[in-house]
Amino acid sequence: MTTITKDRLRLGVNIDHVATLRNARGSAYPDPLRAALVAEEAGADGITAHLREDRRHIADADIDALMAGLTRPLNLEMAATAEMQAIALRHRPHAICLVPENRAERTTEGGLDVAGDDNRLATFIAPLREAGCRVSMFVGHDPAQIRASARIGAAVVELHTGHYCDLHAEGRLAERDAELAALAEGAALAHSLGLEVHAGHGLTFDTVQPIAAFPAVRELNIGHFLIAEAVFIGLGPAIARMRALMDTARG
Question: What is the pTM of this model?
Answer without folding.
Answer: 0.94
